[in-house]
Amino acid sequence: GYQALIDSDGDGYVDVSPDDGVGSQYPSQLRVQKSGSTFTCSYSLDGGSNWTSLDSRGIPQANANQDVGIAVCSHDSGTNCEVNFSDLSIQ
């Protein structure tokens, strides 16, 4: 499924990881929006017309500039996974 990995207390470690509770579907789009100190993580399965929110939270200690990344993991040591990230944009 889709997950938002969040370091909510600024100590350099992920301490919150809400997910959608269902399996991922493809193709899909992922989005992280920042408004002030509030971050919203969402995904879309219809080309960006409709978005499902994974999490939205205020992080008051957030700096003006942020590190953002995307990753994939099978969560099963005996199973490989593959992903094709494309059209990454920062706006």
Strand content: 15-25%
- The coarse overall form would be globular
Mean pLDDT: 84
* Uncertain runs: none
Radius of gyration: 14 Å
Distance separating the two termini = 25 Å
Strand order of the largest sheet: 1-2-3
- How many helix segments? 0
Order of helices and strands: EEE
Which quaternary structure do these chains form? single chain
Secondary-structure-based class equals mainly beta
The profile of the biggest β sheet is: 3 strands, antiparallel
Q: What's the helical proportion of residues?
A: under 10%
Number of separate strands? 3
Furnish the topology, listing elements before pairings:
Blueprint (H helix, E strand, L loop, with lengths): L28 E7 L2 E7 L7 E7 L33
Antiparallel strand pairs: 1-2, 2-3
What would you note in describing this structure?
The chain is mainly beta. Helices cover 0% and strands 23% of the residues. The chain has no helices and three strands. It has strands at residues 29-35, 38-44, 52-58. The chain has a three-stranded antiparallel β-sheet with strand order 1-2-3, with no helix packed on it. Strand 1 (29-35) and strand 2 form a beta hairpin. It starts with 28 loop residues before the first strand and ends in a 33-residue tail after the last strand.
Write out key terms for the chains shown.
three-stranded antiparallel β-sheet; globular; 0% helix; mainly beta; single chain
